């Protein structure tokens, strides 16, 4: 790879430890740039919702119920007279934080399990992969609904329920990458020099298997948002009056004909955010070593 993230000063070190982050960053397309701008905007809204939102998202005004969009309320108001724009902005924080939490737990747990299975092999690998197969045999959405129904409806329980299934894909990819990397000369050399398993994994294996995770995690944020909003739509996620996109859509079903803005704007946020994450994730996937990702994914 001629264009790496380490620069010329570390080229010799890379030759000893392998290509730890095989990602290329050429010129971005217009779609990717727009997606980055959109995601940056949503991130700012999620970090500073109180500064961006024009009104209190939970302020009730029964005299101004289901108002049409105007200068004071650009997105209109809902059936409690609450400003939809403010609730959408605060809902950005709820939806993004929950989705990122699910993906983060999946990445950490899947990476640890995949590293353990791929590096140690034998009975450890067989036991872990049979467990992975067992999880894959269950429909993820149905299992998530069952777990949330068992533990109670809340965003925290959604994170737990989705994380139970989310680590599986990461574990498989990491395991496949580890099976390739551990046969490299620099790993064998580290073993001959007396390096213990922890040192070899931390110094030589882990940095060389993370690159496929960047693209998958980015794509998974969009998928997690869809799962979270879907569970909230079923009444299993954020509870009133917490602003959350799926819960907002669920609460506006009865008014979709008389006040469609109550459903349109939260729905647009979901669509735009998911498409932006997917566009950025596809771009990252194309920049990662395609042969390596393909081999890791099918091990």
Automatic annotation (TrEMBL):
Recorded superkingdom: Archaea
Domain ABC transmembrane type-1: start-end pairs: 92-281
Transmembrane segments: 28-48, 96-122, 142-168, 209-236, 263-284
A single cellular component GO annotation: plasma membrane
Location of this chain's protein in the cell: Cell membrane
SUPFAM superfamilies named among the record's database cross-references: MetI-like (SSF161098)
Membrane topology field: Multi-pass membrane protein
Keywords: Cell membrane, Membrane, Transmembrane, Transmembrane helix, Transport
N-terminal signal peptide: none
A Gene Ontology biological process term: transmembrane transport
Homology family: Belongs to the binding-protein-dependent transport system permease family. OppBC subfamily.
Protein name as it appears in the record: Oligopeptide transport system permease protein OppC
Organism: Methanosarcina horonobensis HB-1 = JCM 15518
């Amino acid at each position: 790879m001629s264009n790496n993230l380490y620069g010329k000063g570390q080229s010799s070190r890379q030759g000893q430890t392998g290509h730890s982050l095989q990602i290329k960053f050429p010129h971005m397309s217009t779609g990717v740039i727009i997606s980055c701008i959109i995601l940056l905007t949503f991130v700012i809204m999620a970090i500073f919702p109180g500064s961006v939102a024009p009104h209190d998202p939970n302020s009730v005004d029964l005299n101004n119920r289901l108002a049409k969009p105007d200068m004071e309320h650009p997105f209109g108001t809902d059936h409690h007279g609450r400003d939809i724009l403010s609730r959408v902005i605060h809902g950005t924080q709820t939806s993004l934080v929950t989705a990122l939490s699910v993906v983060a737990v999946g990445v950490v747990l899947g990476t640890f399990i995949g590293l353990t299975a791929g590096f140690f092999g034998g009975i450890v690998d067989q036991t872990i992969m049979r467990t992975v197969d067992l999880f894959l045999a269950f429909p993820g959405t149905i299992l998530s609904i069952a777990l949330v129904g068992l533990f109670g409806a809340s965003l925290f329980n959604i994170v737990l329920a989705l994380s139970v299934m989310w680590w599986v894909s990461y574990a498989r990819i990491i395991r496949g990458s580890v099976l390739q990397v551990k046969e490299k000369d620099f790993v064998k050399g580290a073993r001959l020099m007396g390096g213990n398993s922890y040192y070899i994994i931390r110094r030589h294996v882990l940095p060389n298997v993370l690159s496929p995770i960047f693209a998958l995690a980015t794509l998974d944020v969009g998928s997690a948002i869809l799962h979270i909003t879907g569970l909230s739509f079923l009444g299993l996620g954020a509870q009133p009056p917490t602003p959350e996109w799926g819960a907002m859509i669920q609460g506006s079903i009865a008014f979709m004909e008389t006040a469609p803005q109550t459903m349109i704007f939260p729905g647009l946020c979901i669509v735009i955010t998911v498409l932006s994450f997917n566009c950025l994730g596809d771009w990252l996937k194309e920049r990662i070593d395609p042969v390596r990702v393909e081999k890791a994914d099918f091990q």
